[in-house]
UniProtKB/TrEMBL annotation:
GO biological process assignments: methylation
Domain Methyltransferase type: 54-104
Domain of life according to the entry: Bacteria
Protein name: Methyltransferase family protein
Source species taxonomy: Bacteria, Pseudomonadati, Bacteroidota, Chitinophagia, Chitinophagales
Molecular function (Gene Ontology), one example: S-adenosylmethionine-dependent methyltransferase activity
Assigned keywords, A-Z: Methyltransferase, Transferase
InterPro entries xrefs: Methyltransf_11, SAM-dependent_MTases_sf
């Protein structure tokens, strides 16, 4: 089930005693991860933005995320950042994470993020709708890459604009889906539901906007903005705010 939408990958509910697995750490592993699993070692970088990186305190294991070499509940928490959109069999991939840990964090590009910064290596596009993760193969919905604004939205603005960082942290799932879970996730893969297909393939009306991005009242909006600003200050003091992701 869904726990919440963290503001970022650094806003996770991780206890110090937790043993943390990261599936697909790639070139930017989460610093809290104890064990890193990646399907590709060396310089096989088609599915990542740079060479494989493992921090000094982390153990690396080369393995396929669809068949993890760990016992049931071997970890307290599992992190998976920008990997699900690449995999061949997302159902098998996520079931393995549910098997090896009772809680976890999933982050992927949203449908909007994929249109702004499209990647040929991404097989799937995703949205969170009604607390569910809904995902379609690009080919199935006729996804077409039009123009790549990745340099702007992935690098320039995160590095240079505090207001952009605040927008990211106050509007859940705008460019990325940030989803913290317990036990499992309700994932719909290529659903035939006409309403979902419409959301992924047709221009959005106000009803769709309000369904995907739920309205908050003025008090809720104020509280969310203040909390996000506090978190940004905290990250800034740790020298992580302007880290390019």
């Amino acid at each position: 089930m869904k726990i919440r939408n963290p503001e970022s990958r650094y806003d996770l509910k991780l206890k110090k005693k937790y043993k943390v697995l990261e599936v697909g750490g790639g070139n930017d592993p989460h610093p809290r991860s104890n064990v890193i699993v990646d399907k590709y070692s060396g310089d096989q970088n088609y599915h990542r933005s740079g060479n494989l990186k493992v921090l000094n305190h982390q153990q690396f294991i080369e393995a396929d995320g669809e068949c993890l070499p760990f016992n049931d509940k071997a970890f307290d928490y599992v992190i998976c950042i920008h990997v699900l959109e690449h995999v061949e069999h997302p159902d098998k991939f996520m079931k393995e994470q549910f098997r090896v840990a009772p809680k976890g964090y999933l982050e992927t590009p949203s449908l909007i993020g994929e249109y702004l910064a499209p990647r040929d290596s991404h097989k799937w596009v995703l949205l969170e709708i009604d607390d569910k993760i809904v995902m379609y193969e690009k080919e199935k919905i006729g996804f077409k890459k039009t123009f790549d604004f990745g340099e702007l939205f992935l690098h320039y603005l995160p590095k240079n604009s505090l207001s952009f960082k605040l927008v990211q942290r106050t509007i859940n799932n705008l460019l990325t889906i940030n989803y913290e879970w317990e036990d499992n996730i309700d994932i719909l893969i290529n659903p035939e539901n006409e309403e979902y297909i419409r959301i992924f393939t047709e221009p959005w009306d106000m009803e769709t906007c309000e369904r995907v991005f739920r309205k908050r009242n003025k008090v809720g909006e104020t509280v969310k903005t203040i909390e996000a600003a506090k978190n940004m200050i905290k990250l800034f003091t740790k020298n992580k705010l302007f880290r390019i992701k």
